[in-house]
Amino acid sequence: MRRGLPAGMRTTPRLALRPFHRRDAEALVESVCSSLPELSRWLPWPHPRYGRSDALRFIRDSQTAWEEGRAHDFALRSHTDGVTHLGNISVWPTSRREQAGEVGYWVRSDHTGQGIATEAAARVLQVAFEEIGLHRVVLRVAVGNRASERVAEKLGFVREGLLRKEVLVAGTWLDHSLWSLLDEEFRRQRAGYAERGWLVGRA
Predict the structure, then answer these.
(1) Pick from 3, 42, 95, 109: most CB atoms within 10 A?
(2) How many domains is the chain partitioned into structurally?
(3) Is 158's pLDDT higher than 80?
């Protein structure tokens, strides 16, 4: 597993993925607040008073985590609209010895159903396996979040099992399904990702 992931932009046919900057705060707040009913069903951090201070704290922590190699958060933008914040996607190492990591994401509610999460996740898996050098990547999905399960299925993740009452969201413990993808599985599917329009070029 390699250290020092460069903090540049990554692209897909439709999207630009880049590290967060302080100037992203307002767009992030707008995106979170417009998606609050959906986000708050599955995630512990969104709240009705989410504002600029929350966004700035996240951005500051994100920049520090990137510099330290603990996590790599990407802001999602489209090539045709560089202003609207489409969501976040992240990859972070969980074990250096086992070369393992995890991916997580969310997409703003008025842009779901367009394949954005799948396309962004395909690109972040390329970062995980080809740039960071991971051997295994996991994805945890709250039970009932069928849209996120479909992303895992389309990308070829294998469902490994159920994590019971894993995350506390709005006073309720949520079960999560656990999915995994191995480096050799990614390599076999890499060209297929490109053929389906999720990545630029072929392996």
Answers:
(1) 42
(2) 1
(3) yes
